[in-house]
Amino acid sequence: MNVSIKQLMDVAQDQKFLDAALRLARKHQGLTGTNPSVACVIVSNSELGPRIVGSGITAKGGRPHAEPPALEEAGDLAKGATAYVTLEPCAHHGKTPPCAQNLIDCGVARVVTAVIDPDNRVNGKGHQMLIDAGIEVTQMAGSVAAQRVMQGYLKARTSSRPFITLKIAMTEKGLMGSKKKGNLKISSNVSSLQTHLHRARHDAILVGSRTALFDDPNLDCRLPGLEGRSPIRIVLDEKLQLTKNAIVIKTAFKTPTIIVSPATTSLEYRQMLAQNGVQHQACEMDNGRIALPELMDDLAAKGIQSIMVEGGAGIAKSFINENLVDEIVIHVGGEPQEPDDPSHGVYAPFTPSSFPAGFELQQTLKFGVDTSLRLRKKN
Ligand code: AOF
Ligand code: ZN
To answer: Are strands 289-290 and 110-113 parallel, antiparallel or unpaired?
Structure first.
């Protein structure tokens, strides 16, 4: 097949504007509830070349969708323009008419999208509406970046479970901490800043009660300007060990917090949680441990679509064993600090050089002296 230079340039131009839309969509990642953060960029061809005449992003909370504000900004310039939308435009009537209809009514000539919307009310119908109205529709193949921006939404829509990122800081030998000293400093400050950025992109952070008790962490996002992006904190507390003195409980009126414990939890403990503004999530037990798959189903039903699991070797192992993890982020500390007595070490269920079966390395980054590995579950 002969592909002309013009065709190659057109594909490159589509990719450029779709990438711009994807960067825009990341701005509201984790802030749009059960709606994905979608962005729309309207590009008009003038004598001087293509130029962006309107842009929009799904509003915080999920409505309005991305297309109406972009089309409104473009005004008459939307006629004959190309709309780059990171997700197939919706075909259903919600608080506003379908976005596909809005694009048709505004006279857009072409629509380029990155991902088909798996929502039953859309799933190809948005594209079909556009095609039936004579609009050229191009779906860009294999957009990994788009899948990443919408990973929580796509996972929850297709499997009723949240997308799970397991984040672990460890040394080359897999050391995570010390049973004696508690919190060993494994990773550098640059990695910690990256962790805060990562938190901001998830709906929730999850740790076990041991981590909440011994490290007494804040588990929020403290990056300047992103303080409002702290995700919900979830603590698994099957033995009801947390008290009102734990930071996660003391600060629950500021940062939403969910404590997970068995349905048999005493009224007294539940009252303590309620008085401190903490939500209680009753869970099923499986052989004396929290039944994680069922808990993940319940959290997805609550609208939590992505979770960063941050706490404890035991929790990491349970999530891996239950086959619940979609992505693993390992921060490998540059200066290994071994405990004097190796039996005091807390070790991860794997090391940076021997990952769990079924995962493949996607990205290696340098964070100061640390190395960060991103592993993804193979399809
Ligand atoms: C779009 N553009 O910006 C977004 C879309 O509750 P509703 O009515 O807002 O519907 C939620 C569904 O809308 C969601 O599951 C997905 O199918 C679509 N999201 N669609 O055209 C947008 N956020
Ligand atoms: Zn819409």
So the answer is: unpaired
